[in-house]
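Standup notes
- DV: blocked on the single-chain target, sequence here:
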Amino acid sequence: MYHLPALLRETIDHLNIQAEGTYVDVTFGGGGHSKVILQHLNEHGKLFGFDQDTDAIKNTLDDERFTFVHSNFQHLQRFLKLHNTKQVDGILADLGVSSHQLDQAERGFSYRFDAELDMRMNQKADLTASEVLNKYSAEALQHMFSRYGEVRNSKTLAYKIVEDRQARPFKYISDLLGSMDTLIRGNRLRYLSQVFQAIRIEVNQEMQVLENFLEQALQVLKPGGRLVVISYHSLEDRIIKNFFKTGNIDGEVKKDFYGNIERPFKIITKKAVLPTKEECRENPRARSAKLRVAEKNG
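- DV (later): unblocked, structure below
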């Protein structure tokens, strides 16, 4: 299976799908969520699926109600306009890396394989993991590891990488693992996951993309439309919470001329929806998933 969708039932329930509605799955991947959304639509319903990964194209659904958009979802508004769609009834985003991407050794997403340090979700993008490791300053690397991976000894790791690359540039995953070996603190697999996550987020500019997407999602949602987001990282989750509460990335409360707080969304999930123990057993990669839902006010 290309990717086992996390929190599938909870996602579909919270989208509150209307049979004749128009919906967007901005992280199409293997089409797991999209297939179920289509089951809830009648002949007048529409579904758009976005994915920048070339590998996802082969999963395109043979259904006249479905339109595949080969693009990063930060271009949501532009591509919907190209398809003569200004507003939609619901949007789903399942963030992070797919099982398919993790399990493909040559993509360089996982420390389980030795391959070139790539980590690009869009294989046509310029920035790779090896370029980040070989060209970023020690300060930039430290910031990346600390902010995106919450790596405790991020400064030590950053300066070790800068030192080691003078003798031999980082090209393969084994190069990075060898450099880190003596610096690993605590649980080894957790440490490696944090480091690889930080690099992947930087390579794909995931936080900036998320911010761009959220701002556009607010614009294209109809009043009463639902925005459903599944995140896997505390920083992502914080951005989503702030946006749902205030309608802006910074979480800054804004007031109108009369002093009334502007609330563009009604928050449907007061607390994040988490996967059940049963789902975590069946799909261990869902264990860090957090689902949040907001409905656009009129």
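- Follow-up: The chain has two domains: 8-99+208-296, 126-203.
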